[in-house]
Amino acid sequence: MVAIATETLIGVENVCKRFPLPEGKGEFTVLQDVSVQVQSGEVVALLGRSGSGKSTLLRIMAGLIPPSEGRVLSGGKVLRGPNRDVAMVFQSFALLPWLTVQENVELGLEAQGVPKDERRRRALQAIDLVGLDGFESAYPKELSGGMKQRVGFARAFVLKPQVLFMDEPFSALDVLTSENLRGEIDDLWNAKTFPSASILIVTHNIEEAVFLADRVVILGANPGRVRGVVKIDLPRPHDRTHPRFKSLVEYIYEAMTNPEIEVTGAPKTAPVAVPVSPYAVLLPHVRVGEISGLLELIVERPEGTDDIPRLAESLQLEVDDFLPILDGAVLLGFAEVSQGDVKLTEIGRDFATTTILRSKDLFRQQALQHVPVVSLMVEALQERRSKSLRADFFLDLWAKYFPYPEAERQFATTVDWGRYAELLEYDASEERVYLPEPTPSAE
Ligand SMILES: Nc1ncnc2c1ncn2[C@@H]1O[C@H](COP(=O)(O)OP(=O)(O)OP(=O)(O)O)[C@@H](O)[C@H]1O
Ligand SMILES: [Mg+2]
Description:
Blueprint: E1 8-20, E2 27-39, E3 43-47, H1 54-61, E4 69-74, E5 77-78, E6 86-90, H2 101-111, H3 116-129, H4 145-157, E7 163-167, H5 175-190, E8 198-203, H6 206-212, E9 215-220, E10 225-231, H7 243-257, H8 288-299, E11 305-307, H9 308-314, H10 319-331, E12 335-338, E13 341-344, H11 346-353, H12 356-370, H13 372-382, E14 388-390, H14 391-399, H15 404-420, E15 425-427, E16 432-434
Parallel strand pairs: 3-8, 3-9, 6-7, 7-8
Antiparallel strand pairs: 1-2, 1-4, 4-5, 9-10, 11-13, 12-13, 14-16, 15-16
Helix pairs in contact: 2-3, 2-4, 3-4, 6-7, 8-10, 8-11, 11-12, 14-15
The structure holds adenosine-5'-triphosphate and magnesium ion (MG).
């Protein structure tokens, strides 16, 4: 292929973003030293789990919020205020219900002061491009989800931005509709009739990233940071049945399931930093039932092992829903992940096949051994004469490190695990945590 001179259209340099925690308890770091460039002519996917700061990064690049540190360069200049070079497609469509399709599409042009006739002409063109001709006068409520998102695309296309931003544009649609629309967007791009010079798409769907993008930027969470970039070295359109496609997907799965490995193209395990407090460690938000469901599925496979993409598929789960379950199983020492395969440990196999009573014993043993926050809660309760504490007491411990909704989720997950293990009880009406009676040994 001939080398084409590329030009950086937009980039962030060493961007940090911090939000204040409630009640002046310091700050919560969402993005840590992030640098990402988008070149003209390329599709870049930002891939990361929920909470890794993907939307925040897009908002910073769109100039909707300022970075706490670092800078955004757009068109070679430091960005101050809203970025005129980008247009955004949102997961939620974000249409105005009281305006017609045509009026929704014209809105951004109106804001730019484009005269009425030109507005109308360009809007009709964009509506045509997304296959909605004939629906110009329809209102959003008369449209299906897929059609609404077509309006979302038309509204961005009409602005002819340098870079089109898409924030999980297909994830609110059903599987078939999203598949169709994704294919159409890719066709437009491959046909070189696309109304922008590059695309930056946020997704948590690995296949979608490998299908659409030329480069996949893998973000780590807590705080959000760039772990590495994977080049998708496939001819366009990217063929899902190509062995290289599959190995890229597996490689990224492996990276996503092992937050500690370096994403280089030759993954190797690096030591994990020792956390300051167990309350600063995020537990995956999964219920015990989901973990045991996964283990029971694997135990039925030959040799008690299976390949991660296939497991996610057979459970009909999105990566974002599947990975936390796997994380939970690995954290508790029930499963091991290597080279894109999941394998049960001996204890995991025992847990998946034994009686309920014994599985509770095994779960208790593993939780006490591998999840320090569970032991800490039990110890705190044992120190009280009433053997109980208000939920707030624990919530405040998490809230030192996380925003309140996250603290609540951590509390809920820990209590779910602790209850299953019969180490904790929770009275939701009194919002109190108890040691169960009779007190089990925490040894
Ligand atoms: N304005 C804000 N104030 C405080 N915290 C915020 C704010 N905006 C985002 N956050 C926090 O920053 C973190 C990252 O949020 P963000 O929406 O960027 O993540 P994301 O990767 O887009 O996640 P998702 O996949 O769920 O969309 C979250 O923990 C969120 O609660
Ligand atoms: Mg988001």
